[in-house]
Specification:
The protein has 239 residues and is of the alpha/beta class. 34% of the residues lie in helices and 25% in strands. It binds adenosine-5'-diphosphate (2 copies). The site of one adenosine-5'-diphosphate has 5 residues, from loops. InterPro entries: AAA+_ATPase, ABC_transporter-like_ATP-bd, ABC_transporter-like_CS, ABC_transpr_PhnC, MetN_ABC_transporter-like, P-loop_NTPase.
Length: 239
């Protein structure tokens, strides 16, 4: 696992909105951290800046040895290979099988399914199976992703990220579209991945209760600025 560092990161979008205002913070290797804040506070921008999808207007972002904010093209794609990413909307290929969706994690740079399947080795297949097993999705391996429930889809998305063998895992509102019991079980999966693999996990949440229950450190954002950074368990709504 790797640390994540933001140094005076400002992000201004072309429409003039400043989504992050000089944010500096360091997340240690192996931490399980929640970013909380209202809609529009900059959570999603922060995650997208850490994995290089949104370049900072000024400041610096590093994920372990990768100076993400300074990378372009192929070097950036390689850095992203070490960063697992989970989205609110799952981003699965609904018509493909669970297996194929999870295999994509090992071949994110491949142009077509055909190339990917042609190149998949026993090592790749084994890693995919182990990733699906760790989120309890092995028995659905040949089901079509589109036929799964929301919680199952998010577990497949977690397996896809794990099959990358990432050093850090970023999750942008991963449970926002799930019902409460399912949201809890997906958060429990993320927490157990953090605990068992020591993987650095950074997760955007708009519900403080989930942050208190499943993470150890909470970073509160308001209008693009850090307004709280401390233990998750003792954070109150007033913070
Ligand atoms: P969230 O609050 O979960 O980030 P939003 O509804 O704010 O979701 O944004 C959904 C998508 O629209 C995102 O990809 C975001 O980058 C984009 N978006 C949000 N606000 C703007 C805006 N003012 N102009 C252009 N795109 C935007
Ligand atoms: P959150 O994830 O906390 O909802 P976002 O990072 O999505 O916050 O948004 C922060 C601010 O930046 C909001 O005002 C939003 O409208 C704006 N924003 C987000 N994405 C874009 C975009 N692609 N273009 C322009 N403005 C955006």
């Amino acid at each position: 696992p790797w640390p994540i560092e933001l140094d005076e990161v400002t992000v201004r979008y072309p429409n003039g909105v400043t989504a992050l205002k000089g944010v500096s913070l360091r997340i240690e290797a192996g931490e399980m951290v929640a970013i909380v804040g209202l809609s529009g506070s900059g959570k999603s921008t922060m995650i997208r800046t850490i994995n290089g999808l949104v370049p900072p207007t000024s400041g610096r972002v590093a994920v372990g040895p990768h100076a993400v904010s300074e990378l372009r093209g192929r070097a950036l794609r390689e850095a992203r290979g070490d960063i697992g990413m989970i989205f609110q909307g799952f981003n699965l290929a609904d018509r493909a099988s669970v297996f194929h969706n999870a295999l994509v994690g090992r071949f994110s740079h491949m142009p077509t399914w055909r190339t990917m399947l042609g190149l998949a080795s026993d090592v790749d297949r084994d890693m995919v199976m182990r990733s699906l097993d760790s989120v309890g999705m092995l028995e659905k391996v040949w089901h079509r992703a589109g036929a799964l429930s929301g919680g199952q889809k998010q577990r497949v998305a977690i397996a896809r990220a794990l099959s990358q063998e990432p050093a850090v895992m970023l999750a942008d509102e991963p449970v926002a579209s799930l019902d409460p019991p399912t949201a809890h079980s997906v958060m429990a999966d993320l927490a157990s991945i953090n605990a068992s693999r020591g993987l650095t996990v950074l997760v955007n949440l708009h519900l403080m209760d989930l942050a208190r229950q499943y993470t150890t450190r909470m970073i509160g954002l308001r209008a693009g600025e850090v307004v709280y950074d401390g233990p998750a368990a003792s954070a109150t709504d007033a913070d």
